[in-house]
Amino acid sequence: MPEQQVRVGGGTAEGSLHARQTITACDESTEQSVMVTMEEVLSRGNMLMAFNRVVSNKGAPGIDGMTVDELWGYCRESWEGIREELLSGRYAPSPVRKVEIPKPGGKGVRMLGIPTVLDRLIQQALLQVLTRLYDPMFSDSSFGFRPGRSTHQALDRAKEHIAAGHRWVVDMDLEKFFDRVNHDILMSRLTRQIEDKRILKLIRGYLQAGIMEGGVISPRSEGTPQGGPLSPLLSNVLLDELDKELERRGHRFVRYADDCNIYVRSRKAGERVLDGVERFLTTRLRLVVNRDKSAVDRPWKRKFLGYTFTQHYQPRFKVAPESVKRLKNRLREASRKARGRSVRRVIAELQPVLIGWVSYYRKSEVKKTFEELDQWIRRKLRAILWRQWKRPWKRARELIRLGLDRVRAWTSATNGRGPWWNAGASHMNQAISTRWLNQLGLVSLVQKAHALNR
Predict the structure, then answer these.
(1) What does the alpha-carbon distance between residue 388 and residue 395 come to, in Å, rounded to a whole number?
(2) What is the Cα–Cα distance from 388 to 376, expressed in whole angstroms?
(3) What Cα–Cα distance (Å) separates residue 69 from each residue in 55, 116, 260, 368?
(4) Alpha helices (H) along 193-261
(5) pLDDT, tens digit, for every residue of 398-437?
(6) Cα–Cα distance measured from residue 335 to residue 329, given in angstroms and rounded to the nearest whole number
(7) Which of 168, 227, 339, 360 could join 112 in a cystine, given CB atoms 3.0 to 4.6 angstroms apart?
(8) Packing angle between helix 68-88 and helix 44-57, nearest 10 degrees?
(9) Residue 35: band (very low, low, confident or very high) from pLDDT cuts 50, 70, 90
(10) In degrees, to the nearest 5, what angle opens at C-alpha 380 toward C-alphas 310 and 303?
(11) Which of 137-146, 203-212, 268-277 has the lowest mean pLDDT?
């Protein structure tokens, strides 16, 4: 950073080359010190990597309004003083900006705390060093927010447990986990591995930084709001104690962040496990199990990371019905904004959503879901066109232009039925064919999933 006069800002070729060289040097280092210090956090290479990551992630400004584009200039002027405060333990994190976003499915909201870009930079630098310390210690059954691990790997592991005969699942939901993390318990876990009191003080400062809403700062005595780079790692540090307890008891489980599924051979065993784990979480970690959302059930009756499973003894992946419903709701919202736009433009706007969705759900081995969604999307696009044509004479003219004979075109245009009915009728399927929509750029989910899986 500026203390070392590292030139990254402005996107110069020299800065980019230096960034690549520094990152490569850090990646090639195989020996990591178990003891972490503030000096290591603030080292030139680590701060440069953190800066590049924060800038590439973009993100909204915090309470000070500073954007990621302004970060480099600010650091050039002020980094020497900031670094001295960090080294002396005097640095005080800024409050986070409160943002609420709807939860998937529209049930309630999720609270995010957006740190300032400077605090995101410092948190990212901490994260990089602490990840090298903690990640090798984490459970092999933990997959969330870890380098080289993914949701798909977590799903593969869950499938292995079911195929091995553990055909009951303890689907455990932690109530408002990120809002209820106990600071003292988390800090006690961190002190087991971190000896540098400056790092511990800084982390506690981030945990206790207030939340600003409407110009008023509210203090925080518990929780680690989502939004900062450090929160996922801290959640894994705390829940690693749960992982170790489950391993000690010999359970088969998969955890992704606060989603934890434990696989057992019978309902009775599952109920016993749920009761025991709930007692452990309450007494040791002061976390609350949401009994309304938790259950002991068959895996194919529950969802995990957006997927569910078939009932076969060698289970297959299947997209959970709730995931299909959320996609349809998102596409409905997009189609409501389509009035006056060409179908080509509507398709172009839908494509990133569809490609992102099928990229995640490509593991589904039940392709009927993709086929039905393809049909539904095409019908939705035909309904948009029918609405845009509005008048019977306009509909008849367009149907004739698209290849229907005059009598059938006029009969169809004046049938008095609604857009959705007509979008599924034979005259619109003939006029607005699948091939015609594909030529406008519409991607088939079936074909895209097949291409991604090759």
Answers:
(1) 9
(2) 18
(3) 7, 13, 38, 46
(4) 197-208, 231-248
(5) 999 999 999 999 999 999 999 999 999 999 999 999 999 9
(6) 10
(7) 227
(8) 140
(9) confident
(10) 25
(11) 203-212
Please give the backbone phi and psi of residue 95, each rounded to the nearest 5 degrees, phi first.
Answer: -60, 155
CA gap 74, 353 in Å, rounded = 36
Per-residue pLDDT, averaged over 257-285, amounts to: 95
**pLDDT tens digit string along 135-161?**
999 999 999 999 999 999 999 999 999
Question: ∠268-269-275 over CA atoms, to 5°?
Answer: 95
pLDDT at 217 over 80: no
Q: What is the DSSP string of 106-157?
A: SSSEEEEEE--HHHHHHHHHHHHHHHHHHGGGS-TTB-TT-TT--HHHHHHH
Residue 144: phi, psi to the nearest 5? -80, 135
pLDDT of residue 33: 41
Alpha-carbon distance 315 to 280, whole Å?
31
Q: What is the mean pLDDT of residues 45-50?
A: 96
For residue 218, what pLDDT is reported?
A: 67
**Mean pLDDT for the chain?**
88
Which amino acid appears at position 226 of this protein?
Q
Question: CB count, 10 Å around CB of 361?
Answer: 23
In this prediction, residue 267 carries a pLDDT of 97
Half-sphere exposure of 92 (CA within 13 A, CB side): 2
3-class DSSP state of 172: strand
What's at 375, amino acid-wise?
Q
Count of CA atoms in the C-beta half-sphere (13 A) of 21: 10
Distance CA(446)–CA(429), nearest Å, equals: 19
First-to-last alpha carbon distance for the chain, in angstroms, is 44
Q: What is the distance, to the nearest Å, from the Cα of residue 2 to the centroid of all Cα atoms in its chain?
A: 33
Token output for 451: 């291409």
Q: Which two tokens stand for residue 407?
A: 């009598």
In our burial notation (b when 16+ CB lie closer than 10 A, e otherwise), range 217-245 reads eeebeebbbbbbbbbbbbbbbbbbebbeb
